[in-house]
Design goal:
The two termini are 19 Å apart. The chain is an alpha/beta fold. The radius of gyration is 20 Å and the shape is globular. Helix 3 packs across helix 11. Strands 1, 2, 3, 4, 5, 6, 7 and 16 form an eight-stranded mixed β-sheet that branches. It has an eight-stranded parallel β-sheet with strand order 10-9-8-11-12-15-13-14. Strand 9, helix 5 and strand 10 form a beta-alpha-beta unit. It is built from eleven helices and 16 strands. The protein folds into two domains: 130 residues, 2-Layer Sandwich (ornithine cyclodeaminase, domain 1); 172 residues, Rossmann fold.
Length: 336
């Protein structure tokens, strides 16, 4: 009889370590670029009230022998509640007989892998001497991105801006203690990014929080907060003024308000997308071309990233004896 392992949020946080996840995401994006993964466009169902959505994201990894789907709710208004904006599960199946191996908490997987992918992008697209970091946002992704940036580059300075100044100050105090480095809360987004050579946009804002005229020459930007066609964190000039790299072209052309709204304004065309990050990793595109150019990585999040994380978490859980095993069924019914 097939058994399924249920792996909770707290266990995912212990089993999926950021530095290892950065390497895992680099390998996963390479596999995608080399054709060893299936990555269909996700299906999104909005509630009539537009207060939240349900996303359904399938994928498969050939060499790993796994397939799965992440089912997740996204409720941006949860910022002042006890609940994460992203809640759900990754269902992990093996591709030999289709057995459901695990149900893995998706909130923690999403938080860690999103920042880990930004870590990969930062290593490949930012200047090697980049270290003046500005974080726009103070939620879950802000903390995870600080963790990833500290691994990706030698960080000299950290500034944070939040639409809620109290949240920004609390973030600065908490993360300063956590990492043993000063994190400065800044009153305006413009002042936060002044002269920064690394910028992480991790807000739930539907309107731009970063304008092109504020961005220093040679900066690298990770934009991960907006994930729908009508929402954007960057204004059109910020997108147009940077060399744009993406996690997946199809996703950006269908889902990214940062790109689609800039295109609607006539500031960019589809050719503005330089390459997928995986294409850079396998050498199909050189990535950054000069010290002076600005680079932008637009991340929407891919199911194949969640799948790779769930597979690793599952294997680690088996090794560590973590999780709750349940019998959900799946066995063949006896003939009458």
């Amino acid at each position: 009889m097939s058994h399924t392992l249920i792996i909770a949020q707290a266990d995912v946080a212990e089993l999926l370590v950021m530095d290892e996840c950065i390497e895992l995401m680099a390998g996963t994006l390479q596999a995608l670029a080399e054709g060893d993964a299936q990555q269909p466009l996700r299906n999104v169902m909005w509630l009539p009230s537009k207060t939240g959505l349900l996303g359904m994201m399938p994928s498969s990894l050939g060499t790993a022998g796994v397939m799965g789907v992440k089912v997740i709710s996204v409720f941006p208004g949860n910022q002042d509640t006890p609940y994460d904006a992203h809640q759900g599960a990754v269902l992990l199946f093996e591709t030999g007989q289709g057995r459901l191996l695990a149900v893995v908490d998706a909130s923690e997987v999403t938080a860690i892998r999103t920042a880990a992918v930004s870590g990969v992008a930062t290593r490949r697209l930012s200047r090697s001497d980049a270290g003046d970091l500005a974080i726009l946002g103070s939620g879950v992704q802000a903390g995870r991105h600080l963790e990833a940036m500290l691994l990706a580059r030698t960080i000299r300075r950290v500034r944070v801006w939040s639409r809620n100044p109290e949240h920004g100050r609390a973030f600065a105090e908490r993360e300063s203690k956590r990492h043993g480095i000063p994190v400065e809360p800044i009153e305006t987004a413009r002042d936060a990014v002044a002269d920064a050579d690394l910028i992480c946009c991790v807000t739930a804002s539907g309107e731009p929080v970063l304008c092109g005229e504020w961005i220093a020459e040679g900066a690298h930007i990770n934009a991960v907060g907006s994930c729908t066609p009508a929402a954007r964190e960057l204004d059109g000039s910020a997108v147009a003024g940077a060399r744009l790299f993406v996690d997946r072209r199809e996703s950006v052309l269908n889902e990214s308000g940062d790109f689609l709204l800039a295109r609607e304004e006539g500031l960019v065309t589809d050719d503005h997308i330089q390459a997928e990050l995986g294409e850079v990793l396998v050498g199909q595109h050189p990535g950054r071309g000069s010290h002076e150019e600005t680079t932008l990585f637009k991340s929407l999040g891919l199911a194949v990233e969640d799948l790779a994380c769930a597979d690793q978490v599952y294997r680690r859980a088996i090794e560590s004896g973590v999780g709750t095993e349940v019998d959900l069924g799946g066995g063949r019914h006896a003939a009458d």
